[in-house]
Write a structure and sequence with these properties.
single chain; alpha/beta; Purple Acid Phosphatase, chain A, domain 2; five-stranded mixed β-sheet; 10 strands; globular
Amino acid sequence: MKIALISDIHSNLQALNSALSSIETHNVDAIYCLGDIVGYGADPSPCIDLVQRHCKGVVLGNHDLAVARNEGTDYLPRSGQEAIKHNRAKLSKSQLDYLASLPYTLVADGCTFVHATPKSPENWVRFDTLGTVRDQFDHFDTAFCFVGHTHIPAVVADRLGVFRVRAGSRYIINVGSIGQPRDNDPRLGFVVFDTETLSHELVRVRYDVEGAAARILADGLPKDLASRLSRGK
């Protein structure tokens, strides 16, 4: 089965539209979203609508929870907190209820999907040390666990010396970010993965960064949320 994995859209409609157009050319069987549909950007409502329409499965991100229930907002930077308030005001009750209903973890098509980490996904831990990563493999049963949260694409195997996806190992794969990449590359990123052949492709696509930044500024959101898009960080 050929699947596309998207994450960290962050209300960036321009990026999401470009990602979905690109995904169409890959002829995937399903799309999974790894959370943070909202936050930071200016267009949460149409982004939620598109995710509901196109994605087979969706998990909860920390910004989704902050917008839906105002939980964890204090842990975000000030610009992120302002965006949470902005996004919440733009959503209908049904959209807020949808975000609040999303699961922390989803297992489907032989894969595990989670926003941050399979161990205690509600704590929003970041993979910032090798020890943190190694500890995660005991907390999912599938061969592949797909994550987002850091906005930085990566592949980590359960044993040393494995540098590409292949049979015989287990993997945690960070799929990068649609709406706010942070690996010094402003192009949106997502992963296309074949569960049978184990083909793994990180897809990078240019999108209308200027348009997304203009929407942020037009809605009165902090300027740094707009300027960082062109820097990819």
